[in-house]
Amino acid sequence: MSDTTPSTNATTRRNFVKGTAALGVGAALASTGIASRAYAQQADTIKVGLIGCGGRGTGAAQDAVGGSNGVKITALADLFPDRLEGSANTLKNNLNDKFDVPANQMFSGWDAYKQVIATDVDMVILATPPHFRPMMLKAAVDAGKHVFFEKPVAVDSWGCRLVEECGKIAEQKGLGIVTGTQRRHEVKYIEAMKRVHDGMIGDVIGAYVYWQQGSLWNKGREQGWSDMEWQLRNWLYFTWLSGDHIVEQHVHNIDVALWAFQDQAPIKAYGNGGRQQRTGPEWGHINDHFSLEVMMPGAKRFTSFSRQIPGCDNYVAEEIYGSKGILRTGDRNRLYSYDGKLLAELNNPGGHNPYVQEHTDLIASIRAGEPLNEAARIAQSTRTAIMCREAAYSGKNCGYDFLKNDSKLQLKPDSYAFGPIETPPVYIPGEYQLS
Predict the structure, then answer these.
(1) Is 96 helix (H, G, I), strand (E, B) or coil?
(2) Which contiguous run of DSSP H or E holds residue 50?
(3) pLDDT digits (tens, 9 = 90+) for 106-125
(4) Residues 182 and 39 sit within 8 Å (Cβ to Cβ)
(5) What's the CA gap between 6 and 23, in Å, rounded?
(6) Which of 10, 82, 101, 112 has its CA 20 to 30 A from that of 75?
């Protein structure tokens, strides 16, 4: 039963959870004589549907179940039947009785996500390629479902606007939306950023953010695959599906930079990108490196470096510069003064897993009747990454307000069907036009 069609004769699962939270969990349980430690067992199960059964989706489903009591996976969807079957086998083996998906709640095909949303799930995990996430978020929110969805949440201006609209509707409906920017749920990052915002390194004046690594997976084209299927199975390498790696992957670091700047919206981006090592057709048409500057309010800025080229030195981290010192992230988040004094060193506690914690936080907020809603924040971070991509593609300054208010950019195929689809040309600065 969805939130949009509450029973008039009985308390729904969500209303029961919200009702006890409104009283305060301890008070509500004390009034019924139930020990507080039994709450998770007494509360009705939160049913979760997984949409997108690749490695990240399968992992997210396990994280959601592993981080909270009383959570089960009850429906699955994927475009491809083989991915659906593979995920189902993995989850069944790993989750045991927390995987409760009958055959009639396993769906494949272009409309499979609608079928999962139509089942009796309380929450959905959206782990499809980024292109599809805005439309699937809308379907879930319209149906009254809580949502965990992976980053980035869009690949174009249209998608970011839709995510923001859905976030407002979700807030009105009392629905939770959390995204896969796990650093926002990671103890060492949270504690480090508290110190930054409390002034330990002075006023934040700039930052450098990095995601520099080798190449990721690539699937060779198999006999019988149409152009569309080949692109979908190699979605990382097509901008309409992934947003390019600066959006799909580097959004993590860009999000941390914006966090350091108190989540202010940027002004504009300018810089470079290119395709130097991954030049074969098997790599689609995206860039393999970017370097940009992002202008922030108050004449402040941060610099962004992202690269997917094998054989180079790798570095994935952020460096936040203040007027009195610096925060360097990595295996330990360390804050220094400019004379070299170590001000703080922050680690995750034993057993802490931010990939699990983001689900735990969402589910706890739902049960408390105060669901988290990260839609506006992640739309801003995603749009900032898109702004950087568009600046590099065009070789021109790209403004944040332009993308938010005026841009008509919408990346999509002529139709969602298996068949021929061209690989776009590689983007050439000076020729590519902002839209």
Answers:
(1) helix
(2) strand 46-51
(3) 999 999 999 999 999 999 99
(4) no
(5) 21
(6) 10
